[in-house]
Amino acid sequence: MSDFWRPAGAGVASVVAGVGAAELVSAFVVQNGSPVLTVGALLIDLAPPWLKEAVIGLFGTGDKAFLIVSLAVVVLIGAAVAGWLERLRPPLGRILIGLGGALGVLAALTRSGNSIVDAVPSALAAVIAILLLGWLIRMLRETEPTRVAPRGQVSRRRFVTSTAATAGAGALALVIGQVVAGGFRAASAARAAIRLPKPATTAPPVPAGASFDIPGLSPIVTPNADFYRIDTALQIPGIEPHDWKLRITGMVENELELTFAELLALPLEESITTLTCVSNEVGGDLIGNATWLGYPIRHLLARAKPSSNADMVFSTSQDGWTASTPIEALTDDRNAILAVGMNGQPLPIEHGYPVRMVVPGLYGYVSATKWVVSLEVTRFDQHTAYWTDRGWSEHGPIKLSSRIDVPADGRQVKAGTVAVAGVAWSQHTGVSAVHVRVDDGPWQEATLADAISVDTWRQWRFAWEATTGSHTLRVRATDADGKVQTSTVRDVVPDGATGLHTIHVPVV
Hints:
Layout: H1 2-28, H2 35-46, H3 49-59, H4 63-88, H5 92-110, H6 120-142, H7 156-180, H8 184-193, E1 245-250, E2 256-259, H9 260-265, E3 269-276, E4 287-296, H10 297-304, E5 312-317, E6 322-326, H11 327-331, E7 337-342, E8 345-346, E9 356-358, E10 372-378, E11 401-406, E12 416-425, E13 431-438, E14 443-445, E15 447-448, E16 458-466, E17 469-479, E18 502-507
């Protein structure tokens, strides 16, 4: 086995050192060139929708951590194979590393807004790894006995020490690079210094009866730390407020450019809106409700004067991600805003700081652009966005749905009166009723908490007289237009999951 593990160790050490050096250069010189993040972002773009949904379904908001760990495992395995090949059939190992470097260069060059300079770290990683691998494999060969040197010209201890030192130096560089990188350190400091202006229009107060005091029931307003995060950004864009600008272009009479200071000087409005991810499975937790502070997009579009032929606004994030939003959702009376605040604080960096879009009634993939820097007024037949290019529908209205929060699925309860509770939503329409069904019995009406607005979810509760045995509970909602939630089961692709949330509860 030593015939494999020693050259494999040399391969791993060489690649770790190369990647570490590249991450260090990326952190201090070329901020958009991290090989780990650019390759990871390319894999996200190339992955088929079913695979992305499977990963999100399994890992939820931990999908990016899973991707980075998986990528690291693949790279380490490839590095070990490269070392073994280099010992067995040189220069195959160095060629394999060169191909990996080429993938990094390709990934860097294909990212939106990147240039040839951003490919330098990936190229550097390959060059350093190739040179180190050649050196370590030569040293490994010199540990082997020959007629001239029966014990080898180099001791195995020296080879092991050199390999460990190479790997250690690379790991240290990698850690330093990651600590310094991410560009959001400066952005975090700037965010901490921001004092949001008072809203010119405050959100209506949350009614006293909008929330039930039931342990395990989702709070009516989701804390920032608990708000779901689903996006394609492995490296969160670090944008300082004085660098942020929004351009409104395309099919308009007047193109506009807005700075962060100018945005804060506008009469900002406060509103409470529930956001939902299209990847949310029936009964899933990719949904949250927050108080947002921002400026209505309809006012900016009114200044830009869109063409009557325009039917879509194509928004672009700092990291190149795009969304296509129906123009009517940004010009009607809903609280579609450029948000700068979330629950009384400046936007968290991972949720779009300094500015993001919040549009009631639409799934995030067609509306909730984080780190937004551009709005282009255009048409659906002229532009397609990130997710519509990958088979998702164009318009993405949020579907009527409901969820049981308590009791948890499979949680044992005692016979008697059991509190069943959850949330229901039909953004920009509102929920008028919720019903619960126990086993094959009749649908029974639940008690609704007071509504905040048609753009927020609504809590509900139901007093269940539970008897011993195993029971099945289902929930369904009815919206303000009298539409009843469908029981037809459909996947999240292409425009959101449908079906009734069902749980199984043992009663003793």
